[in-house]
Design a protein that fits this description.
Blueprint: H1 3-16, E1 41-43, E2 55-58, E3 60-65, E4 69-77, E5 82-85, E6 91-96, E7 103-104, E8 109-114, H2 117-154, H3 160-194, E9 204-208, E10 213-218, E11 225-226, E12 234-237, E13 241-249, E14 261-266, E15 274-281, E16 291-299, E17 310-315, E18 319-326, E19 331-333, E20 336-344, E21 347-359, E22 362-367, E23 374-378
Antiparallel strand pairs: 1-21, 2-23, 3-18, 4-13, 4-17, 5-12, 6-8, 6-11, 7-10, 8-9, 10-12, 13-16, 14-15, 14-17, 15-16, 18-22, 19-20, 20-21, 21-22
Helix pairs in contact: 2-3
Length: 387
């Protein structure tokens, strides 16, 4: 190569400089810049597409509870409003007058049963009536005999033995009347249980609803013969009031008292709350979950609330006013909570906060932000680098 060629080659090499890879440029918003004496700051260019993805809102003052209890819950039937219908006697089912889901009133006929015990019960009552009449007549005669013999004895016309005999007969007549009246009362109660009346001449028994409510279960059909009077044939429940059962952690049970109100939220009805009243707090702690069962009565006049529905309950006593933001505004960073406070167009301050209360979708801030400050309430994760 000529001297002129070497000169050109050396000039090209020198002008290129050392061959090193160029470091990638980090987005200005990916690393908050520390401000002397303050919190880290994030700045975005005016034309950054991130700005359109952010939602800004003001810190507002809200009345929030500092002792709120939130627990999962489930709706249940009140055992005191549940009735299992049994047969009063054995017999064959002639007809069933209800179906599952029917609403019945107390005293409505549920089914009709063919049973020879109907006639037997009526006959027993009529016999007991006759026994009472006979016993009364016997007592009248015994009383008259007693008075007559005592009169004769006063004039020394009869011996003392005769007096003792009529006294004993009078006492036995009185006892017979008491026994016959007791037997009649029992026979009358038996008629009432069977839905019969004295003078009826039939061999059927009508089984009636003991309470008003809905038929939830039905285990009987016409033509079946049932001899087990301890086996329920149907279940009726009054669902005008249901129970909300919640498992409250033992460290929060001190905040709940009998008669206090609980707000119930159900998955079936998002956005709605239902007020319930605490009626029972269990006396024992569930050892595995360390929770205590709390039950509250929940009115259900229109029947929208159904047993086994899931949801949660909220309970609080005292409230206090404090700065509050939506839950989406608070971000978790470096082991703590922060919010992004707007300091100007495209400028945000990463400010630590301390949560003082929780209520629904709102968080109360005990420290870190003031009412009226503007914060990022949605999209804040886009501004912070991944941990």
């Amino acid at each position: 190569m000529s001297a002129r060629g070497w000169s050109v080659a050396l000039w090209l090499i020198g002008s290129l400089g050392p061959c090193r890879p160029r470091a990638p440029q980090r987005d200005a918003a990916s690393t908050p810049a520390a401000v002397p004496g303050g919190s880290p700051q994030i700045e975005l260019p005016a034309d950054s597409p991130m700005l359109s993805s952010l939602k800004i809102g003001e810190v507002t003052a809200r009345e929030l509870s500092t002792d709120e209890v939130v627990s999962p819950a489930q709706l249940e039937i009140d055992p005191g409003r549940l009735s299992h219908v049994l047969l009063p006697v054995t017999g064959r089912v002639r007809e069933v007058d209800v179906r599952v889901g029917d609403r019945v009133a107390a005293g409505d006929v549920l089914l009709v049963l063919d049973s020879p015990e109907a006639d037997a019960a009526i006959a027993h009552y009529e016999q007991s009536e006759a026994d009472v009449l006979a016993a009364r007549a016997g007592l009248v005669k015994a009383t008259a005999d007693r008075e007559r013999v005592h009169g004769l004895f006063a004039h020394d016309a009869v011996a003392r033995k005769e007096v003792d005999n009529v006294d004993a007969a009078h006492a036995e007549a009185r006892a017979a009347l008491v026994r016959s009246e007791a037997d009649r009362r029992q026979a009358r109660r038996r008629l009432g249980l069977l839905g019969l009346r004295a003078g009826d001449r039939r061999d059927t028994i009508s089984v009636r609803a003991p309470i008003a409510g809905k038929v939830l279960e039905l285990h009987v059909a016409p033509g079946e013969f049932h001899s087990d009077t301890a086996q329920p044939l149907m279940t009726i429940a009054d669902l005008s009031v249901v129970l909300v059962t919640a498992d409250v952690p033992e460290n929060l049970i001190r905040f709940v008292g009998l008669g206090e109100s609980m707000q119930t939220e159900l998955a079936a009805y998002p956005g709605e709350t239902f007020a319930a009243k605490v009626v029972r707090i269990a006396d024992t702690v569930e050892p595995k979950t360390r929770t205590i069962k709390v039950q509250a009565a929940l009115p259900n006049p229109d029947g929208r609330l159904r047993p086994e529905m899931f949801g949660r309950v909220r309970h609080s006593r005292a409230t206090t006013s404090m700065p509050a933001v939506p839950q989406s505004a608070v971000l978790h960073r470096d082991g703590g909570d922060v919010v992004l406070v707007e300091r100007g167009p495209g400028r945000f301050e990463v400010r630590p906060v301390r949560i003082g209360a929780r209520s629904g979708e709102w968080l109360g801030l005990a420290e870190g932000a003031k009412v009226g400050e503007r914060v990022v309430i949605d999209g804040g994760l886009l501004l912070l680098p991944s941990e």
